[in-house]
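User: Here's a structure from my thesis project, written as structure tokens. My advisor, Dr. K., wants to see whether a designed sequence matches the one we expressed. Can you design one independently, without my sequence as a hint?
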């Protein structure tokens, strides 16, 4: 796969703007972090529903209440997984997510029974699949905010920033390595991916994240020296990113193939839509969350 300079420049320009917006949302404060992923959540859902409609035209017949109610249900999951950092005085977003979620769970099937022309178990499964695929991942991302709190370091999106940086390194290095030396196709689902690029991206991801997290550059991730966090954790997180990020990319590619489309959307020139840009994180985040819960 030869390097296309024109495509690379287009992708690079978009990536610079994308990184600037992401960093602002990630680092400004907890509210910019929450708003950023709320917008991403909505964008991913809109694209997901369009893709599912192309795969199964029957899905276009769902009621408006179903269409937006399921997105609201996903947002309730995000609210529910917020921690005390997101409290406004005595007002808890966590409690709001719980009660609003209960109301939504009650009303959504009731309205479907009353106003839907016919109930389709397939449509319900597609919507439930979206909750697992999209909403759960972004809810767990919110839950990772300040999950790791170094004693004398910077509090904030330490784990989210680490995995986002790791995904970016893995994707970029896989693209570059594959462009220069890639010859062996990795999967029929994504013909442009090569084994050389995939392995090169994974190795460089693990090495770079490990060195950054355990060296002088650790301040980039808000990880000060001498916190007692074992060095191998960061290598493992990077390895999880490399493996699950590739799986997430292939899964979204499969959905697009089934829908017979090239990109999930056009929000980012050269990069496609929300799902195109965040497909890796949708698979990475739940696994990293589990790892952090069990081992960190």
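Assistant: Designed independently from the structure alone:
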């Amino acid at each position: 796969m030869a390097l296309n300079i024109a495509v690379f420049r287009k992708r690079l320009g978009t990536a610079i703007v994308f990184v600037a917006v992401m960093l602002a949302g990630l680092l400004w404060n907890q509210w910019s972090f929450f708003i950023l992923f709320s917008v991403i959540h909505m964008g991913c859902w809109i694209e997901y529903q369009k893709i599912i409609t192309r795969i199964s035209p029957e899905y276009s017949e769902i009621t408006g209440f179903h269409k937006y109610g399921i997105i609201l249900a996903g947002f309730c999951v995000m609210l529910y997984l917020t921690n005390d950092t997101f409290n406004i005085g005595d007002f808890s977003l966590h409690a709001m997510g719980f009660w609003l979620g209960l109301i939504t769970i009650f009303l959504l099937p009731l309205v479907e029974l009353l106003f839907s022309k016919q109930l389709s178990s397939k449509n319900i499964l597609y919507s439930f699949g979206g909750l697992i695929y999209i909403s759960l991942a972004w809810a767990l991302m919110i839950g990772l905010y300040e999950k790791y709190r170094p004693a004398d370091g910077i509090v904030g999106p330490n784990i989210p920033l680490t995995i986002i940086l790791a995904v970016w390194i893995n994707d970029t290095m896989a693209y570059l390595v594959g462009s220069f030396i890639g010859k062996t196709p990795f999967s029929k689902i994504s013909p442009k991916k090569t084994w050389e690029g995939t392995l090169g991206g994974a190795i460089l991801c693990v090495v770079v994240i490990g060195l950054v997290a355990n060296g002088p550059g650790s301040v980039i991730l808000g990880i000060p020296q001498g916190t007692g966090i074992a060095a191998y954790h960061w290598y493992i997180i990077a390895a999880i990113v490399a493996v699950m990020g590739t799986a997430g990319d292939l899964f979204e590619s499969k959905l697009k193939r089934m829908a017979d489309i090239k990109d999930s959307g056009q929000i980012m020139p050269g990069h496609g839509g929300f799902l195109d840009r965040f497909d890796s994180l949708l698979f990475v985040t739940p696994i990293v969350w589990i790892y952090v819960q069990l081992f960190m």
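When you compare it with your expressed construct, this may help: Residues 178 and 197 are 4 Å apart (CA to CA).
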